[in-house]
Amino acid sequence: MNEHHNPWTIVAQKQVYDNPWIGVTEFDVLNPAGGKGIYGKVHFKNLAIGVIPIDAAGNTYLVGQYRFPLSQYSWEIPEGGCPLGTDPLETAKRELEEETGLVATQWTRIQEMHLSNSVSDEHCFIYLAQGLQQMQAMPEETEQLVVREVPFTELYQMVANGKITDAITVAAVLKVHIMILEGTLKIKG
């Protein structure tokens, strides 16, 4: 098997939905075994950005909000969309300040990933923010947020126990946990 060879053949395609954030395309395909089928792809018009802020005391900050697609409340790290062609780090800085009021002096990109790659092309960058200073939060009108400060060790347990299910948050927390275990990140707590 050649990892650079695409075993799918596109016979036809049509856009079935489009808005300013996503587009949905339906493909008539021949699958890798040669059988006819359809495949739907959700194209995201923004990059996904996540920020895990950690302060000098080893605390991090979660944002709680009701997530419409899930019909449930979700605790997660600050997240947002980055228009294609825009600097992801600048978007990360904006999202952190908008959602939590925090400004950071140290930024490290710690993870790059694809979200739900069986149906979408959504691409994500996750940043670690340190050297935090509290300013004024300025959430968007579509966001009704609650900010919660928690020790990183508690957040790790929330992820390990399945109390947090947001993919970006889970990935960020596990990555930071690995960095701590490897000794490449030292935090109190």
Kindly report how far apart the N and C termini lie.
47 Å
What level of helicity do the residues show?
A: 10-25%
**Total number of beta strands:** 10
- Find the structural class using helix and strand composition: alpha+beta
SSE order, one letter for each helix or strand: EEEEEEEHEEEHH
The best one-word shape is globular
Strand order of the largest sheet: 7-4-9-8
Number of helices: 3
Rg of Cα set = 19 Å
Q: State the major sheet.
A: 4 strands, mixed
Q: How big a fraction of the residues is strand?
A: over 45%
Catalogue the unreliable spans. none
What do the pLDDT scores average to? 94
In short:
With 189 residues, this protein is α+β, with helices and mostly antiparallel strands.
Task: Describe, in plain words, how this protein is organized in 3D.
This protein is 20% helix and 46% strand. It has three helices and ten strands, in the order βββββββαβββαα. The protein has helices at residues 88-100, 152-160, 167-182; strands at residues 9-18, 22-30, 36-44, 46-53, 59-67, 72-76, 79-83, 102-114, 123-134, 146-151. Strands 7-4-9-8 form a four-stranded mixed β-sheet, sandwiched between helices. Strands 1-2-3 form a three-stranded antiparallel β-sheet, with no helix packed on it. The mean pLDDT is 94.
